[in-house]
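ok so for the tutorial part 2 we go from a plain amino acid sequence to predicted structure tokens. step 1 is just haveing the sequence, like this:
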Amino acid sequence: MAAHDAAANECTAPPRGLEKFHSAIEDAEAGRRSHPLTVLHVGDSHISLDSFTRGLRSRWQARFGDAGRGFMPGVPFRYYAPDGYEISMAGEWNIFSSLPTDAAGPFGLQGFRVEAETREAEISLRSDTPFSGVEIEAYGGPETGAVLVKIGDAAPLRLQTRQAEPGYIRLRVPAAAAVEVRLSPAGSGPVRLLGWGVTKEAGPGLRYDSFGVVAATAAITTRWDADIVRAQIAALQPDLVILGFGTNEGFNNGLDLDAYRELAGGFAEAVKGSAPQASLVFLGPFDGARQGSGESCGEGWATPPKLDAVRRLLKALAEEGGDFFWDGAAAMGGRCAADRWARAEPPLMFADRVHLRAAGGEVLAASLHAALMGEACHADDAPD
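step 2 — the prediction. this is what the tokens look like for a chain of 384 residues:
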């Protein structure tokens, strides 16, 4: 089965590679499904904020209902501010990132963990709309302690993370139309949080978990604990998994493409093994430019030489696996679009020719959503 390319001349319904996702949609709309449609989206800085993902989330949840989302633990990096939520940290939390090549300790799909031991350490979340449940992902062991969970004005609940063998723990707490939750260690030992989330609608709706790490490449996945990732995906039961790596790889002139193929393909297969019910999407990286080596776009800006090679490689992996491929650069208008977007009035891209402004993120979200839903074959909305 060939991958679907949004720039192809023909469309199929459902799009090739997205049959499982569209089957889940049909079941939800026919009332044959009691649990939410679920999307998992992981990748780099384009996913770390909601400038790109908000357009997908808002469209899907406007149609199917808001079933909630997952979050990174605490505030793992500056400017982390998921749409519709205020998250803050107080006290002595230690933040660990899986981005460094020498990163150690347990990590899951979120790419971060936070640790604290005293009750003075607190993470709080306030939602713009009520939620009906809280989920906490932690790493427990013989020495870890309990976490206190305070939802609204209710008395704190004490949830234990201590267990005989080190490993992943998923805790769930119901909430009655709450808008605020606070987490803190109970003081009985260190607490290691991998992530958390809120559920909103009981039954149908759509949940969209998006986790991105600034400057990440697919190599970051090798520093995530395979057992944790497998357990997280199994618990989430996604209907669609979107892999959004490739931009930073494409800016690396020394990238070993054969090694990268093995790395990216290996992670994709691991995801599919953990979520056989899901459709898988490879996002071909957006166009980008820099001042340096590469084919010129004019006025000192050039396209990194490996960027299109990475895009072709990801498309080939999708074709081989029967998965869906979407070409982010084509949706922008092709090579040197990043330079044009940065110069547009108003600009759609920041001056670095890498990161999207909110307006540019909306253009691309609309294009990707149309492709995933089988509503369009071409990315005709990109500016000239």
